[in-house]
Design brief:
OB fold (Dihydrolipoamide Acetyltransferase, E2P); about 30% helix; about 25% strand
Length: about 280
């Protein structure tokens, strides 16, 4: 039963877009619920009541959607957040639909705090301008829609985001390493690189996982990830997650943690095109 948190400070748009979200929830016929929040502060206060209080109002919940009585799903995903982050005991939402420009905590601020608190449910941003699209990369937003948002575009974005949430709950790659077998969530993988005769996976948590010796080529070893649209080969021994790429130059990619991934000369043009198209498609 998917749960959506919708945050919009403008009362008129909160009502109009909220009605569309309610319609979407009804059409899914799977018990999807929508909770409305009038500010980023209100959403954060509801999610993290034990933290310092912030002004901003409360929540307008959909039918049967009382936040206080939500039971956390076993599949709730936690974020690729800094190691210092402590995920909350309950992660009530599968998707966040956030306005970008709000007084106090902007949608980008809210997204960053969600990630820092250990929550990685997909985020769909709504805004009147594309100028904040680059900032949305910091939280790896699932979509970025410019207002006024047409119903078909909104519903398609919600479908993609909830599909992504479902995929996060079940997807993963199995890596044999010295300590045993690890199952890695692709969402948390920043990049993979060949180290000697092993593959090292760098995660957004700061952890690095090194496989046992591989008997195939690097390309074959990361084949499953390479077939995922989020990943791209940067050369003979490096693969990067486009969701975590913040800049592309002629010689390397910059990742969200500041790490540089070498980019081979023959791959530079294709990688830059793929990266730009990856985010442009999510901003339609």
């Amino acid at each position: 039963m998917p749960a959506i948190a919708f945050c919009e400070d403008n009362a008129t748009e909160r009502e109009t877009l909220g009605a569309l979200l309610d319609e979407y929830a009804r059409e899914r016929r799977d018990g999807t619920t929508v909770d409305r929040y009038p500010s980023g502060a209100a959403l954060l206060s509801a999610l993290f009541p034990d933290t310092a209080s912030v002004p901003g109002g409360g929540v307008s919940a959909g039918p049967g959607a009382s936040l206080a009585h939500r039971v956390p799903d076993a599949h709730s995903a936690y974020a690729a957040a800094p190691r210092t982050a402590t995920p909350p005991a309950a992660c009530p939402y599968d998707l966040y639909v956030l306005d970008v420009i709000m007084p106090g905590s902007s949608g980008i601020d809210v997204g960053l705090q969600l990630r820092a608190k250990g929550l990685d449910a997909p985020i769909v941003y709504l805004t009147i301008s594309r100028e904040y699209a680059v900032e949305s990369y910091q939280v790896h937003a699932a979509d970025y829609l410019v207002k006024p948002v047409a119903k078909p575009a909104l519903f398609a974005a919600l479908d993609r985001a909830l599909s992504l949430a479902a995929r996060h709950r079940t997807a993963g790659i199995v890596v044999k390493c010295r300590e045993g077998v690890r199952r890695l969530d692709p969402e948390r993988i920043l990049c993979a690189e060949l180290k000697g005769r092993a593959v090292r996976y760098t995660l957004s948590t700061g952890e690095a996982i090194t496989s046992t010796t591989i008997r195939s080529s690097f390309r074959a070893a990361v084949e499953d990830l390479a077939h995922d649209e989020r990943f791209i080969l940067c050369g003979a021994s490096h693969l990067a997650n486009l969701q975590h790429v913040t800049a592309v130059s002629r010689t390397d990619l910059t990742l969200s943690n500041g790490m540089l991934v070498p980019l081979s000369r023959d791959r530079a043009t294709d990688v830059k095109r793929r990266w730009m198209n990856f985010w442009l498609e999510r901003g339609q």
